[in-house]
Amino acid sequence: MAIRVLLVDDQPLLRTGFRMILEAEQDIAVVGEAGDGLQALDQVRALQPDVVLMDIRMPRMDGVEATRQISGPGKDGPAKVLVLTTFDLDEYVVEALRAGASGFLLKDAPANELVQAIRVVAGGEAMLAPSITRRLLDKYADHLPSGEEPVPDTLHTLTDREVEVLKLVARGLSNAEIAADLFVSETTVKTHVGHVLTKLGLRDRVQAAVYAYESGLVRPGAQ
């Protein structure tokens, strides 16, 4: 079945461009559009999309609040939110991730990256591109822990290997890349990631990466 996508952006021209790109793919169907967060909520309820391509800055209700109401804490609907941001990295992106977004993508990303991001998010994974993550962390480095703070108690529930995997997830590595780095199978990595998410009470890899930085386990610029 085709991946059902809802386009949410207050610029009609951008929505048209996204629609043209996505409708060229056999496994993706654009089921609707919305010009602000309130319209997006109505469309999600009416159309039941698999993925919502969400702009952040919009009138009436911004993308952060819309994301929170679609996929935030306590929400168990099927829709995944992929946030759109500008090259300068909107200051609300971190809040959108905390609100329940499954990833973020630059508005000027190549068409093939947009299509791949839709597929990744629809498949239950998180879209956490390393290049975007690094710029995001550079922007917010002053607000992140220095690494000298006490380690949260929940982190002690992880095994040494799970901590290794969490650090690599925070760097934006895929399962295949983590497997190559640790010389294990992708299946083993997937199992470790699942254990990390369960033990820490996290929804996906994006939340895991945010947790790793906020807890001080990983520091901006660290390899």
From TrEMBL:
UniProt entry keywords in alphabetical sequence: DNA-binding, Phosphoprotein, Transcription, Transcription regulation
Stretches assigned to the HTH luxR-type domain: 151-216
Record InterPro entries: CheY-like_superfamily, NreC/VraR/RcsB-like_REC, Sig_transdc_resp-reg_C-effctor, Sig_transdc_resp-reg_receiver, Tscrpt_reg_LuxR_C, WalR-like
Gene assigned in the entry: liaR_10
Domain Response regulatory: 4-122
Protein name in UniProt: Transcriptional regulatory protein LiaR
CDD domains: LuxR_C_like, REC_NarL-like
PANTHER family to which the protein is assigned, alphabetical: TRANSCRIPTIONAL REGULATORY PROTEIN NARL-RELATED, TWO-COMPONENT RESPONSE REGULATOR
Superkingdom of source: Bacteria
UniProt record, GO biological process: phosphorelay signal transduction system; regulation of DNA-templated transcription
Gene Ontology molecular functions: DNA binding
SUPFAM superfamilies in UniProt: C-terminal effector domain of the bipartite response regulators (SSF46894), CheY-like (SSF52172)
Gene3D superfamilies with a match to the protein in the record: 3.40.50.2300
SMART domains to which the protein is assigned, alphabetical: HTH_LUXR, REC
In-chain residues carrying the UniProt-annotated modification 4-aspartylphosphate: 55
